[in-house]
Automatic annotation (TrEMBL):
It comes from the Bacteria. Residues 423-522 form the Peptidase S12 Pab87-related C-terminal domain. Keywords: Hydrolase, Signal. InterPro entries: AmpC-like, Beta-lactam-related, Beta-lactam/transpept-like, Peptidase_S12_Pab87-rel_C. Residues 42-378 form the Beta-lactamase-related domain. This is Serine hydrolase.
Length: 539
């Protein structure tokens, strides 16, 4: 689940010393304008400014990995081992380029066309609007302009969800459209899960096997895998708020989210992936994994995006999304990039194709500002030989954001003088107890435990929390797992019929994590009874 920045004490200068040495030989040189000292200084400044335990950085230039370095440690625990070039990180949405590339392989084989209708390959495919279902193309799965809202369906993928891919696809028709088809960009993970299911449908193999064998293994990516790490694997990073306890292989559930964000990879593995992409799908040893025509199709703009706030400073005049990649102009050059955030980790991959340069950044801290700072700084050095202070820029922006959030919480937030919590009697609490069912997320239960009202989601290993009452049937749910879910506390507004009976609820996130898409939930009360055993199991 994407979590917002959680501030902790700044590390002492002695604790941010370089903990590992470069791992790549420097047979070729760094891009003109970029030096090892500039990289080291930038990464360590960002690591301190944003309190990041560990970072791995690699640079590819002119066909060679010219820099690969680990900084800091693998976990929040200060006694954890140092990061190196083979440390596994969750790369999150940088998985999307693998899923898009897997589809490109099927296009190359003549099994698929980008403009094919999805229902011609998946007859059971459905979205909320029948006319859109009939016209939904394979390319529409990848470009984030379906008309669904930002992060629609993410609660089936994240927040401890145990929903399988078939169950997730069954929820797709209930996703509301918030804009006309193909008119407005809104980032969407759910449709990449559909894209993964399409890969499975056409190959007869799991998405995991296709990506592992035909992309990761075929390209020879070291320390890279399409499945999460399991007990016994060493050299694995732990993200912010995560326990670091790896599951047994036999008990591991394949996550539904995998085609949108399930790959784990080292910086050495991602650097070789960058080499392959920069050379039009050909590995350094000459193997053609996918064609240059496919690479060019993936890197072509297909959906326009608004310009970022930084556009003037980076001389950016357009921004677009291709198939699994963002692209823009950057100081006169084309820049192709993508980020990824999952399991308390953030990744960033960026290319300047005309300069034959690629940069990979992997971190184990749930804050995109660190990766944005490093990626923009190093890309600017490679493109122009100089860079603005992007670390200060995003540090200042983050401070402003936190100050505004704190002010709003103190003045109008739950528990503030303007919105004080109230105490409900046992009989008043009983009005809300029962089972509620949402069309796409399934059952949600409200129970009493001691003096508290409790909320628990089904099909989730641990998404449960305590409800605190505000006036007018409004509550705040505070999730039990503060490390992973604390930023996703939400308002819960119960609804009554004309007789005064509670008949349903709606939810709104208090914070700004778009992947907790509570606003799309419309649970209706289906029972006034509840078994406490269900909450304990989280099913």
């Amino acid at each position: 689940m994407i979590q917002r920045f959680r501030h902790s004490c700044m590390m002492a200068a002695s604790a941010i010393a370089l903990l590992s040495a470069p791992y790549a030989t420097h047979a070729a040189s760094l891009p003109p304008g970029l030096t090892e000292q500039a990289i080291d200084t930038t990464v360590e400044r960002a690591r301190q400014a944003f309190d990041v335990p560990g970072i791995a950085v690699a640079v590819v230039h002119d066909g060679q990995i010219v820099f690969s370095h680990g900084y800091g440690r693998r976990a929040e625990d200060k006694a954890s081992a140092p990061v190196d070039g083979r440390t596994l990180f969750a790369i999150g949405s940088n998985t999307k380029e693998f899923t898009a590339t897997a589809l490109a392989l099927l296009v190359e084989q003549g099994k698929l066309g980008w403009d094919d209708r999805v229902i011609d390959h998946m007859p059971d495919f459905r979205v909320a609007d029948p006319s859109i279902t009939r016209d939904f193309r394979v390319s529409d799965l990848l470009t984030h302009h379906s008309g669904m809202g930002l992060g629609a369906g993410d609660l089936m993928l994240f927040s401890h969800s145990t929903l399988t891919r078939p169950e997730i696809l069954a929820g797709l028709p209930f996703m509301p459209f918030t804009a006309p088809f193909r008119t407005r960009y809104a980032y969407n993970n759910l449709l990449y899960v559909v894209a993964g299911a399409l890969v499975e449908r056409l190959t007869g193999q799991s998405w995991e096997d296709v990506v592992q064998k035909r992309l990761i293994d075929a390209a020879g990516l070291p320390a890279c895998q399409s499945t999460p790490p399991v007990k016994g694997q060493a050299n694995v990073a732990t993200g912010e708020g995560e326990s670091g306890i790896l599951p047994d292989r036999a008990s591991r559930l394949l996550p539904g989210v995998a085609p949108a964000g399930g790959i784990w990879c080292s910086v050495d593995g991602m650097a070789r992936w960058a080499q392959t992409y920069l050379d039009g799908g050909r590995t350094p040893d000459g193997r053609q994994v996918f064609s240059q025509a496919s690479r060019d199709a993936l890197w072509a703009p297909h959906a326009l995006l608004p310009l970022p706030d930084t556009a003037e400073a980076t001389r950016t005049h357009f921004r677009a999304y291709g198939y699994g990649w963002f692209m823009e102009d950057f100081f006169g050059y084309k820049r192709v990039w993508h980020t990824g955030t999952i399991d308390g980790m953030v990744s960033y991959m960026t290319f300047l194709p005309e300069l034959k340069t690629g940069i990979v950044i992997l971190t184990n801290h749930d804050d995109h500002n660190a990766t944005y700072s490093i990626a923009t700084t190093l890309s600017a050095y490679a493109a122009t030989g100089t860079s603005a202070d992007w670390i200060a820029h995003w540090r200042d922006a983050e401070n402003v954001e936190h100050a505004a959030e704190a002010k709003a919480a103190a003045s109008t937030g739950p528990g503030s003088p303007a919105r004080p919590f109230i105490t409900l009697s046992e009989s008043a609490q009983q009005d809300y107890v029962g089972t509620y069912r949402d069309d796409w997320r399934g059952p949600i239960t409200i129970s009493r435990r001691g003096q508290d009202l409790r909320m628990a989601f089904s099909h989730a290993d641990g998404l449960s929390g305590t409800l605190s009452a505000l006036p007018h049937d409004l509550f705040v749910v505070r999730w039990d797992d503060r490390g992973q879910d604390g930023s996703d506390d939400a308002y819960v507004q119960f609804e009554r019929d004309v007789s005064g009976k509670v008949v349903g609820m709606s939810m709104r996130l208090i914070g700004s994590d778009f992947s907790f898409d509570a606003q799309d939930l419309h649970p209706k009360k289906v029972s006034s009874s509840f078994s406490g055993e269900k909450e304990a199991k989280g099913r």
